[in-house]
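[agent] plan:
  1. take the single chain provided in the ticket
  2. run structure prediction with default settings
  3. attach structure tokens to the ticket
  4. add a short note for the reviewer (M.T.)
[agent] executing step 1
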Amino acid sequence: MYEILWFHAAVDQLFEISRADPRQALRILTAVRSFGRDGKGDVKKLQGSSVEWRIRTGDWRLRAAKHGAAFHIVSVDNRRDAY
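[agent] step 2 finished; step 3 output follows
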């Protein structure tokens, strides 16, 4: 349904999460894959922007930019640091 692309910074952030908590990193990846495949998940367009979206999974927020049928994952942040 959607093509998911990752910025290098977001991949680095996910790698750091996987070092601290591999299960949480897997949960994040599963949520992104499910959204990309089915369009399902806790995904919301951010107010004040025409292209920015957030994907929420547990205590983690992924910021994404939508361009056509592609979502570019920009960052992976803990919810206390995301906004």
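[agent] step 4 note for reviewer: Residues 15 and 21 are 10 Å apart (CA to CA).
[agent] ticket updated
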